[in-house]
Amino acid sequence: MLVVGSGGREHALGWKLAASPRVDAVYTAPGNGGTENNVPIAADDLGGLADFAADRGCLTVVGPEAPLAMGIVDLFAGRGLRVFGPTKAAARLESSKEWAKEFMARNGIPTARFGAFGEPGPAHRLVDSLAEGGGVVVKADGLAAGKGVVVCGGADEAHAAVDRMLVSGEFGGAGSRIVVEERLEGEEASYIAMCDGEAAVPMASSRDHKRALDGDRGPNTGGMGAYSPAPAVEGEETARAVREGVIERAVAAMRREGCPFSGFLYAGVMVGADGRPSVLEFNARMGDPECQPIVMRMDFDLFEYVEACAEGRLASMPPPRWLARHAACVVVASRGYPGRHDSGGEISGLDRPPARDVRIFHAGTRREGGRILASGGRVLGVAALGDSLRSAVSAAYGEARRVSWPGSRMRSDIGAGGPAREGGGLSGGS
Ligand code: AMP
Ligand code: GLY
Predict the structure, then answer these.
(1) Each residue of 116-137: pLDDT tens digit?
(2) Can you tell me which atom of ligand 2 is nearest the CA of 9?
(3) Which residue owns the Cα nearest ligand 2 atom 5?
(4) 288 Cβ inside 6 Å of ligand 2
(5) Which ligand has the minimum distance to the alpha carbon of residue 64?
(6) CA distances from 288 to 11, 96, 107, 306, 387 (A)
(7) Cβ distance 329 to 287 under 8 Å?
(8) Could you tell me if the CB of 271 is within 6 A of ligand 1?
(9) Residues 141, 334: Cα–Cα separation, whole Å
C-alpha cells in the first residue's frame, strides 16, 4: 500500500491498513516522524508518486485534498494504477464551494440558502437581505486550508469579509469567487462514507472541535480534537436523513452527472432543533482529526473495503463492524497554531508504550537521529477508546499530558458538548 500525505489522518489510516493480514507493507509519502517506510516524495509530486506506486505495485490511498484537486486519481487511473480517492471532477465537491452548493441545490440536498458571486455589489446586497433574518457566513470558493470561512456575527462583519475576499484579494485565487449563505444554528457532526462510485458504506459518526481555544473560542483550525460517535446524528431519523438524503443522494447524482464519486465522502452537517440535517460542507477525503477516533473503533479489515472500492464492488461487502465503545482524540499542537508558531522542539514522553486502548498518532513531527521533533502546527493526536465518552476523553488526556515539548499546548475541553447526551447514541456491531 502507498498512503499519500503526512498528517495524523495518514498515520491512522496507515496503522489500520498495516494491521491487515493481506498487506505486507505500507509506504507513506512523504509521511512524518511516526509513520513507517517513509518515501521522500511530496504529496503534490503526482508523477513521482505514480512512478513509485507503479514500481512497487501499490494500491494507493490519498489522504489530503490538494493532490485530489490536482487530479492524482485521474493520473493514476490513466496509468492503470489502483487508487482509492475521487477524480478531479468528483473532488469539486470540496475544491469549489460554489460548485458544491449548486450541486446540492439542483439535487435537493438540504443546505443553507446562498448566492455565489465574483463581484462585491450583489454579494453585499445578499448580505443585507440575509442579515435581516439572522447571521451570515462568507466563504472563499476555493481550497483555503480551512481558513476561507468567516462565520459572521452581524452584517458589518460580513460586509468586511466580502471586501477582504473580493476587493483586497486576501485569499488569492481561492477567494476570487465567494459564497454568501445564511448562518445555521444547531449541533454539528461529521458524517463520512466510503464510496466506490455507486455504493456508499457509512463510517462511524464523529465530531471535531475546530476552534483553537477552550469554549469554542479563537480562530478556526484544522481541528483540535474529535470524538466518535457524535450524538447529533445517531438518532434513527436523523441518521436516515443523512444517509439517504445526503450521502446516497449525492453519490447517485454524481454518477448521473458523469463524475461518479469514489473515495471517502465527508458531509459536515448541522442538525437543527427539529433533528433535520443540513450540509455545511462536503469534503472529498477523510476528516483530520475525525479519522483518528474512527479508526480506533474499526472492528474490520480496512484494506478489504479500500480494495473493494478501488475495484467497484463495495455493494458486495458485508456491513463493517464497529466497536460498541467511544473514542476520543486530543490534538497536541504548537503554541500559536493556527498562526505563527515555533518548531524544532524535542518531544519528550514518547519512549514508553502508551496505555492499553490508547494510541499516539503523529502529525507535524520528524525524526532526527534518535529524537522526535515538533515540526508543524498540529503535532500529535492522542486517541483512546473508553466505555463512555468521558472515559475515552480522560484516557486520551492522561496520555496527552505525558508528552510535551517547549511550546506544546492542547485544548482542555475536548468532548464537551457530548457528555450531556452521553447516555444515548452508541451503535455498535454492524
Ligand atoms: P466549512 O469549511 O465550510 O466546513 O466551514 C467551517 C466551519 O464553519 C464549519 O465547520 C461550521 O462550524 C462553520 N459554518 C460553515 N457554514 C456555516 C453555516 N451556514 N452556518 C453556521 N456555521 C457554518
Ligand atoms: N476536521 C475537519 C476536516 O478534516 O475538514
Answers:
(1) 999 999 999 999 999 888 899 9
(2) 4
(3) 287
(4) yes
(5) 2
(6) 11, 19, 28, 18, 23
(7) no
(8) no
(9) 29
| Residue 300 to residue 251: CA distance in whole angstroms | 23
- Ligand 2 centroid–CA 223 distance in Å is 6
Q: What is the pLDDT of residue 43?
A: 97
In the chain, which stretches have pLDDT less than 70? 146, 417-430
- Contacts of the segment 232-235: beta carbons below 8 A, 24+ positions apart: 232/186, 232/187, 232/188, 232/189, 232/205, 232/207, 232/269, 232/271, 233/189, 233/191, 233/205, 233/269, 233/271, 233/277, 234/205, 234/424, 234/425, 234/426, 234/427, 235/275, 235/424, 235/425
The length of the chain, given as a count of residues: 430
What's the pLDDT score for residue 417?
67
- The string of pLDDT tens digits covering residues 207-261 is 999 999 999 998 888 899 999 999 999 999 999 999 999 999 999 999 999 999 9
Q: Nearest residue CA, atom 18 of ligand 1?
A: 183
State how far the Cα of 16 lies from the Cα of 38, in Å rounded to an integer. Answer: 16
- Residue 373 and residue 376: Cα distance in Å, rounded? 9
* DSSP H stretches of helix in 117-154: 120-131
* Angle between helix 302-310 and helix 8-18 axes, rounded to 10 deg: 100
pLDDT at 144: 81
With CA atoms as reference, report the closest residue to 19 among 4, 32, 7, 1.
1
The Cα–Cα gap between 9 and 381 comes to: 9
Amino acid identity, position 265? L
pLDDT of the residue at 358: 97
Q: From the CB of 268, is ligand 1 less than 6 Å away?
A: yes
Which atom number of ligand 1 is nearest to the Cα of residue 210? 10
